[in-house]
Amino acid sequence: MAKATLIAIGNEILIGRTLDTNTHWLAQNLNARGIEIAQILVIADQEEAIKNALDWGFTKSEIIISCGGLGGTIDDITRRTIADYFGTYLKTHEPTLRKIEKIYQERNRPFTEVAARISLVPEGCQVLPNEEGLAPGLLFTKENTHQCYFVLPGVPHEMKHLAQTHVFPYIEKHYDSHFFRSITLRTMGVTETYLATLLAPFEQKLLPSMQLAYNPSLSSLDIRFSISTLEEKELIQFNTLLEELKNILAPFLFGEGEATLEEVLGNLLIANASSISVAESCTGGALCAKIISVPGASRYIHGGIVAYANEQKINLLGVKPSTLQEFGAVSEQTAIEMAVGIREKMGTTIGLSTTGIAGPDGATPTKPVGTVWIGYADAYNTYAKQFIFENNRERVIQRSVANAMYIVIKQIKGQKN
Asked: What is the secondary structure of 209-235 as a DSSP string?
């Protein structure tokens, strides 16, 4: 299996001003083609850093791809450094120069020396025409080796264009083609340690070509199951094991691939001809915003009310003053009455509510920061579920939103727990 080193060149990445999305996208697409990522490097626009990265890359992989540093300004030193690294020199690539001159003329802009420098390429490299921008990509092949080096612009849409039109076809032609498959199963309501214990017997069945990875986040615990092999029979076995894995995860599984909670929720509501409305306290509108972030959400969400103060819980949602007095705003009883109240007020199939202590203040001896009640109401069920999240306001809100949607998903699927 061929390996690749990805290099992001740019001081702006190192200081946190620009987010490197290029290597993330490349890694996904190379993996999908059976190429293993040996390493991802982020380096400065410095000659020594670039040369060291190339030395390191060629010791670890057959394929190197770098992004960035191909402009014409003084800090764009990639071309010059690479020419020196390969013992060659820069020369004008006439087709690129003519293209740049034409673009500047069409835009009625003065042609400058900075623009002209973009057409300089190292002697001996293969020039990869860039139909989405000015700077072409470059391809170097190392003599008497099975190694290659692609130099791509840092502008994401230009990088993707060159990767799709030049890089990927070259790799598919010159490197062994593996059967590769990867699927992400998205779970919730279960811890990583519990799943690891649950899946231990399953992992004993995996072949060396298969991999199981755990990727936890605030909104889900993703299980990625993948295979890279030259043997078709192993791919068939992978598909069989995949179905077994899905059955094991079924009580916690809410989606596959890139499916989000809000998308899965929306699809279920549409499929069941259901509608929803939300009453929020501790989440402050974040739950409603997440649900309506999905295009077409108007088909199933009628609206929401943020009733932060107790007076508004009473006036807008019909929560009984006696309930608040006896049990408090953060309680099972209040969460249920909020869910029932918003359902009746909005005339929806489902009412959903959140009430809790997001912090940092407001805790009591029996209700620490992170205590949240989520209420659910439909024509047949009314209940509330308590959660104790960590002592972090932002995380409490995010986890409350995620778990509220998950409760509805489970309920619609008939898996209430």
From this structure: TEEEEEEE-SS-EEEEEEEEES-HHHH
